[in-house]
Amino acid sequence: MPGRGSVPPERVARVDALAKEVLAHSVTGVVGFRGVPAAALQSMRRELRSRHHPITVAPNSALRHALEKAVSERPALKPLLDQVEDQSALLAAEGNPFSLYQEFRRTRFPTPARGGEVAPRDIFVPAGTTSFRPGPIVGELQHAGFPAAIEKGKVVLKRDTTIVKAGQTISREVATMLTRLEIFPLEAGLSLRALVDGETYYPPEVLSVDLDARRADVARAARSALSIAVELGYLTAETLPLLLTKAHRRALGLALAAGYLTRETVEPLFAKAMREAAAVQRLMGP
Protein backbone atom coordinates (compact mmCIF):
# COMPACT_ATOMS: atom_id res chain seq x y z
CA MET A 1 0.00 0.00 0.00
CA PRO A 2 1.56 3.35 -0.99
CA GLY A 3 2.50 5.63 1.86
CA ARG A 4 1.20 9.13 2.40
CA GLY A 5 2.45 11.55 -0.25
CA SER A 6 3.26 8.85 -2.78
CA VAL A 7 1.97 9.24 -6.34
CA PRO A 8 -0.38 6.54 -7.69
CA PRO A 9 1.29 4.48 -10.45
CA GLU A 10 -1.46 5.30 -12.96
CA ARG A 11 -0.70 9.02 -12.61
CA VAL A 12 3.01 8.39 -13.16
CA ALA A 13 2.19 6.32 -16.24
CA ARG A 14 -0.07 9.06 -17.58
CA VAL A 15 2.63 11.70 -17.17
CA ASP A 16 5.21 9.44 -18.85
CA ALA A 17 2.86 8.76 -21.77
CA LEU A 18 2.14 12.45 -22.23
CA ALA A 19 5.87 13.32 -22.15
CA LYS A 20 6.52 10.67 -24.83
CA GLU A 21 3.66 12.06 -26.92
CA VAL A 22 5.18 15.55 -26.71
CA LEU A 23 8.63 14.30 -27.74
CA ALA A 24 7.15 12.34 -30.65
CA HIS A 25 5.87 15.50 -32.39
CA SER A 26 7.59 18.63 -33.65
CA VAL A 27 4.89 21.04 -32.43
CA THR A 28 3.93 21.39 -28.76
CA GLY A 29 1.52 24.03 -27.51
CA VAL A 30 -0.38 25.08 -24.41
CA VAL A 31 -4.10 25.68 -24.98
CA GLY A 32 -6.48 27.61 -22.74
CA PHE A 33 -10.17 26.77 -22.55
CA ARG A 34 -11.56 29.06 -19.84
CA GLY A 35 -15.29 29.68 -20.28
CA VAL A 36 -15.94 26.83 -22.70
CA PRO A 37 -18.97 24.73 -21.71
CA ALA A 38 -18.19 21.03 -21.26
CA ALA A 39 -20.33 19.90 -24.20
CA ALA A 40 -18.74 22.49 -26.50
CA LEU A 41 -15.26 21.48 -25.33
CA GLN A 42 -15.91 17.83 -26.15
CA SER A 43 -17.18 18.79 -29.61
CA MET A 44 -14.10 20.95 -30.25
CA ARG A 45 -11.79 18.15 -29.11
CA ARG A 46 -13.45 15.69 -31.47
CA GLU A 47 -13.11 18.13 -34.36
CA LEU A 48 -9.43 18.77 -33.61
CA ARG A 49 -8.77 15.04 -33.27
CA SER A 50 -10.30 14.44 -36.71
CA ARG A 51 -7.76 16.93 -38.09
CA HIS A 52 -4.89 15.15 -36.31
CA HIS A 53 -4.47 18.00 -33.82
CA PRO A 54 -5.67 16.41 -30.55
CA ILE A 55 -5.40 18.22 -27.24
CA THR A 56 -4.93 16.51 -23.88
CA VAL A 57 -6.89 17.90 -20.93
CA ALA A 58 -5.36 17.05 -17.56
CA PRO A 59 -4.65 18.71 -14.20
CA ASN A 60 -2.06 21.46 -14.51
CA SER A 61 0.28 19.54 -12.22
CA ALA A 62 0.27 16.59 -14.64
CA LEU A 63 0.84 18.87 -17.63
CA ARG A 64 3.78 20.55 -15.88
CA HIS A 65 5.36 17.24 -14.89
CA ALA A 66 5.04 15.95 -18.45
CA LEU A 67 6.64 19.11 -19.87
CA GLU A 68 9.41 18.99 -17.26
CA LYS A 69 10.24 15.40 -18.25
CA ALA A 70 10.23 16.38 -21.95
CA VAL A 71 12.39 19.47 -21.29
CA SER A 72 15.26 17.22 -20.19
CA GLU A 73 15.48 15.96 -23.78
CA ARG A 74 14.18 19.04 -25.55
CA PRO A 75 15.14 22.24 -23.67
CA ALA A 76 13.30 24.48 -26.16
CA LEU A 77 10.03 23.43 -24.46
CA LYS A 78 10.91 25.15 -21.17
CA PRO A 79 9.11 28.49 -21.88
CA LEU A 80 5.82 26.59 -22.18
CA LEU A 81 5.89 25.84 -18.45
CA ASP A 82 5.03 29.49 -17.75
CA GLN A 83 1.89 29.14 -19.89
CA VAL A 84 0.38 26.28 -17.85
CA GLU A 85 -2.07 28.20 -15.70
CA ASP A 86 -5.82 28.50 -15.21
CA GLN A 87 -7.61 25.87 -17.35
CA SER A 88 -5.03 24.35 -19.68
CA ALA A 89 -4.58 21.56 -22.19
CA LEU A 90 -1.57 20.33 -24.13
CA LEU A 91 -1.26 20.08 -27.91
CA ALA A 92 1.24 17.66 -29.47
CA ALA A 93 0.97 17.62 -33.26
CA GLU A 94 2.52 18.44 -36.61
CA GLY A 95 1.80 21.46 -38.75
CA ASN A 96 2.46 25.11 -39.47
CA PRO A 97 2.39 27.19 -36.25
CA PHE A 98 0.47 30.06 -37.84
CA SER A 99 -2.12 27.78 -39.43
CA LEU A 100 -2.56 26.00 -36.11
CA TYR A 101 -3.12 29.32 -34.35
CA GLN A 102 -5.83 30.24 -36.86
CA GLU A 103 -7.42 26.81 -36.47
CA PHE A 104 -7.77 27.35 -32.73
CA ARG A 105 -8.88 30.93 -33.29
CA ARG A 106 -11.82 29.67 -35.35
CA THR A 107 -13.17 27.77 -32.35
CA ARG A 108 -13.92 31.02 -30.52
CA PHE A 109 -17.45 32.41 -30.36
CA PRO A 110 -19.11 35.51 -28.85
CA THR A 111 -20.58 35.20 -25.37
CA PRO A 112 -22.55 37.60 -23.16
CA ALA A 113 -20.99 39.45 -20.26
CA ARG A 114 -22.29 38.76 -16.76
CA GLY A 115 -20.60 41.69 -15.04
CA GLY A 116 -17.21 41.93 -13.42
CA GLU A 117 -15.22 40.97 -16.52
CA VAL A 118 -12.56 43.22 -18.03
CA ALA A 119 -13.46 44.41 -21.54
CA PRO A 120 -10.90 42.96 -24.00
CA ARG A 121 -11.66 45.80 -26.43
CA ASP A 122 -13.93 48.84 -26.70
CA ILE A 123 -17.60 47.80 -26.45
CA PHE A 124 -19.44 49.77 -29.12
CA VAL A 125 -23.22 50.21 -29.13
CA PRO A 126 -24.62 51.61 -32.42
CA ALA A 127 -27.41 54.13 -32.63
CA GLY A 128 -30.77 52.93 -33.88
CA THR A 129 -34.18 51.53 -33.05
CA THR A 130 -34.33 48.73 -30.47
CA SER A 131 -36.83 45.88 -30.15
CA PHE A 132 -38.01 47.19 -26.76
CA ARG A 133 -41.48 48.55 -26.14
CA PRO A 134 -41.70 51.95 -24.37
CA GLY A 135 -41.72 51.54 -20.61
CA PRO A 136 -39.33 51.24 -17.65
CA ILE A 137 -36.64 49.89 -19.96
CA VAL A 138 -35.88 53.45 -21.08
CA GLY A 139 -34.92 54.51 -17.57
CA GLU A 140 -32.92 51.31 -17.05
CA LEU A 141 -30.93 51.95 -20.22
CA GLN A 142 -30.33 55.58 -19.33
CA HIS A 143 -29.22 54.64 -15.80
CA ALA A 144 -26.68 52.20 -17.27
CA GLY A 145 -25.28 54.95 -19.53
CA PHE A 146 -27.08 54.14 -22.79
CA PRO A 147 -28.49 57.21 -24.67
CA ALA A 148 -32.06 55.86 -24.79
CA ALA A 149 -35.18 57.80 -25.68
CA ILE A 150 -38.68 57.28 -27.08
CA GLU A 151 -39.28 58.45 -30.65
CA LYS A 152 -42.44 57.75 -32.64
CA GLY A 153 -43.54 55.18 -30.09
CA LYS A 154 -40.31 53.21 -30.20
CA VAL A 155 -37.28 52.96 -27.90
CA VAL A 156 -34.20 54.21 -29.71
CA LEU A 157 -30.52 54.70 -28.93
CA LYS A 158 -29.90 58.24 -30.13
CA ARG A 159 -26.19 58.04 -30.91
CA ASP A 160 -23.28 55.64 -31.29
CA THR A 161 -21.73 54.99 -27.89
CA THR A 162 -18.62 53.30 -26.56
CA ILE A 163 -20.25 52.00 -23.40
CA VAL A 164 -17.09 50.40 -21.96
CA LYS A 165 -13.52 51.08 -23.02
CA ALA A 166 -10.90 48.36 -23.41
CA GLY A 167 -9.39 47.45 -20.03
CA GLN A 168 -12.34 48.74 -18.01
CA THR A 169 -14.55 46.46 -15.90
CA ILE A 170 -18.00 45.69 -17.27
CA SER A 171 -20.57 46.43 -14.58
CA ARG A 172 -23.43 44.02 -13.94
CA GLU A 173 -25.90 46.73 -14.94
CA VAL A 174 -24.22 47.34 -18.29
CA ALA A 175 -23.79 43.60 -18.86
CA THR A 176 -27.53 43.04 -18.36
CA MET A 177 -28.44 45.75 -20.86
CA LEU A 178 -25.91 44.50 -23.42
CA THR A 179 -27.38 41.01 -23.24
CA ARG A 180 -30.90 42.38 -23.69
CA LEU A 181 -29.64 44.29 -26.72
CA GLU A 182 -28.11 41.02 -27.98
CA ILE A 183 -24.60 42.45 -27.88
CA PHE A 184 -22.12 39.79 -26.74
CA PRO A 185 -18.76 41.51 -26.06
CA LEU A 186 -16.74 38.56 -24.81
CA GLU A 187 -15.36 35.44 -26.47
CA ALA A 188 -15.13 31.85 -25.38
CA GLY A 189 -13.30 29.02 -27.07
CA LEU A 190 -9.86 27.55 -27.32
CA SER A 191 -6.86 29.87 -27.26
CA LEU A 192 -3.41 28.72 -28.29
CA ARG A 193 -1.34 30.55 -25.68
CA ALA A 194 2.06 29.65 -27.12
CA LEU A 195 3.81 26.82 -28.91
CA VAL A 196 7.21 25.43 -29.76
CA ASP A 197 7.93 24.21 -33.27
CA GLY A 198 11.17 22.25 -33.26
CA GLU A 199 13.51 24.54 -31.37
CA THR A 200 11.59 27.78 -31.98
CA TYR A 201 9.28 29.32 -29.38
CA TYR A 202 6.27 31.27 -30.66
CA PRO A 203 4.45 33.57 -28.20
CA PRO A 204 0.83 34.50 -29.03
CA GLU A 205 1.69 38.02 -30.24
CA VAL A 206 3.87 36.46 -32.95
CA LEU A 207 1.31 33.82 -33.91
CA SER A 208 -1.56 36.30 -34.17
CA VAL A 209 -1.04 37.11 -37.83
CA ASP A 210 -3.82 37.97 -40.28
CA LEU A 211 -3.01 35.38 -42.94
CA ASP A 212 -5.52 36.81 -45.43
CA ALA A 213 -3.91 40.25 -45.11
CA ARG A 214 -0.44 38.76 -45.56
CA ARG A 215 -1.59 36.83 -48.66
CA ALA A 216 -3.02 40.08 -50.06
CA ASP A 217 0.32 41.82 -49.39
CA VAL A 218 2.21 39.07 -51.23
CA ALA A 219 -0.22 39.27 -54.15
CA ARG A 220 0.21 43.06 -54.36
CA ALA A 221 3.99 42.69 -54.22
CA ALA A 222 3.90 40.08 -57.01
CA ARG A 223 1.78 42.37 -59.22
CA SER A 224 4.14 45.30 -58.60
CA ALA A 225 7.21 43.19 -59.34
CA LEU A 226 5.62 41.94 -62.57
CA SER A 227 4.82 45.50 -63.68
CA ILE A 228 8.38 46.66 -63.00
CA ALA A 229 9.86 43.66 -64.83
CA VAL A 230 7.67 44.32 -67.88
CA GLU A 231 8.58 48.01 -67.84
CA LEU A 232 12.29 47.13 -67.72
CA GLY A 233 11.94 44.42 -70.34
CA TYR A 234 13.24 41.79 -67.92
CA LEU A 235 12.65 38.37 -69.46
CA THR A 236 11.10 35.62 -67.31
CA ALA A 237 8.50 32.91 -67.89
CA GLU A 238 5.87 35.27 -66.43
CA THR A 239 6.90 38.40 -68.34
CA LEU A 240 7.51 36.77 -71.75
CA PRO A 241 3.84 36.75 -72.90
CA LEU A 242 3.34 40.31 -71.66
CA LEU A 243 6.56 41.56 -73.31
CA LEU A 244 5.63 39.93 -76.62
CA THR A 245 2.18 41.55 -76.50
CA LYS A 246 3.74 44.92 -75.66
CA ALA A 247 6.33 44.61 -78.45
CA HIS A 248 3.67 43.58 -80.97
CA ARG A 249 1.47 46.53 -80.01
CA ARG A 250 4.36 49.00 -80.38
CA ALA A 251 5.50 47.49 -83.69
CA LEU A 252 1.99 47.73 -85.07
CA GLY A 253 1.70 51.34 -83.98
CA LEU A 254 5.05 52.19 -85.60
CA ALA A 255 4.10 50.44 -88.86
CA LEU A 256 0.82 52.34 -89.01
CA ALA A 257 2.55 55.65 -88.37
CA ALA A 258 5.12 54.91 -91.11
CA GLY A 259 2.51 53.61 -93.57
CA TYR A 260 4.31 50.29 -93.77
CA LEU A 261 2.13 47.74 -95.55
CA THR A 262 1.69 44.31 -93.97
CA ARG A 263 -1.11 41.79 -93.65
CA GLU A 264 -2.05 43.40 -90.31
CA THR A 265 -1.70 47.05 -91.35
CA VAL A 266 -3.38 46.96 -94.75
CA GLU A 267 -6.90 47.27 -93.42
CA PRO A 268 -6.32 50.15 -90.96
CA LEU A 269 -4.08 51.94 -93.52
CA PHE A 270 -6.77 51.63 -96.19
CA ALA A 271 -9.38 52.96 -93.72
CA LYS A 272 -7.07 55.85 -92.88
CA ALA A 273 -6.54 56.63 -96.57
CA MET A 274 -10.32 56.65 -97.14
CA ARG A 275 -10.85 59.05 -94.26
CA GLU A 276 -8.15 61.38 -95.53
CA ALA A 277 -9.54 61.27 -99.07
CA ALA A 278 -13.01 62.10 -97.80
CA ALA A 279 -11.60 65.03 -95.85
CA VAL A 280 -9.78 66.39 -98.92
CA GLN A 281 -12.95 66.05 -101.01
CA ARG A 282 -14.92 68.05 -98.47
CA LEU A 283 -12.33 70.79 -98.55
CA MET A 284 -12.46 70.98 -102.36
CA GLY A 285 -16.22 71.32 -102.35
CA PRO A 286 -18.76 70.00 -104.92
What does this structure look like?
By secondary structure, the chain is an alpha+beta fold. The chain has 3 domains: 9-108 and 189-209, Ribosomal protein L10, N-terminal RNA-binding domain (Alpha-Beta Plaits, 2-Layer Sandwich), CATH 3.30.70.1730; 123-184, Ribosomal protein L10, N-terminal fragment, domain II (Molybdopterin biosynthesis moea protein, domain 2), CATH 3.90.105; 214-284, no CATH class. It has 10 helices and 12 strands. A 5-stranded antiparallel β-sheet has the order 2-3-1-11-12, sandwiched between helices. The chain has a 3-stranded antiparallel β-sheet with strand order 6-8-7. It has a two-stranded antiparallel sheet with strand order 4-10. Strand 11 and strand 12 form a beta hairpin. Helix 1 (9-23) packs across helix 3 (60-71). The protein is flat, with a radius of gyration of 34 Å. It starts with 8 loop residues before the first helix and ends with a helix. 20% of the residues are buried.
List keywords for this structure.
286 residues; alpha+beta; Molybdopterin biosynthesis moea protein, domain 2; five-stranded antiparallel beta sheet; 45% helix
Offer a concise description of the structure:
With 286 residues, this protein is α+β, with helices and mostly antiparallel strands.
Instruction: State the low-pLDDT regions, or none.
Output: none
Q: What's the number of helices?
A: 10
The number of E-state strands comes to 12
Radius of gyration of CA atoms, rounded to a whole number: 34 Å
Series of H and E elements? HEHEHEHEEEHEEEHEEEHHHH
In CATH, the homologous superfamily of the largest domain goes by the name: Ribosomal protein L10, N-terminal RNA-binding domain
Q: How many domains is the backbone divided into?
A: 3
Q: Major sheet: size, sense and barrel closure?
A: 5 strands, antiparallel
Could you say what the CATH topology of the largest domain is called? Alpha-Beta Plaits
Question: Globular, elongated, flat, extended or rod-shaped: what is the shape?
Answer: flat
Please report the distance between the alpha carbons of the first and last residues.
128 Å
* Beta-strand share of residues: 15-25%
Structural class: alpha+beta
Helix content: 40-55%
Q: Which CATH C-level class of the largest domain is it?
A: Alpha Beta
What is the name of the CATH architecture of the largest domain?
Answer: 2-Layer Sandwich
Global mean pLDDT: 89
Question: What is the strand arrangement across the widest sheet?
Answer: 2-3-1-11-12
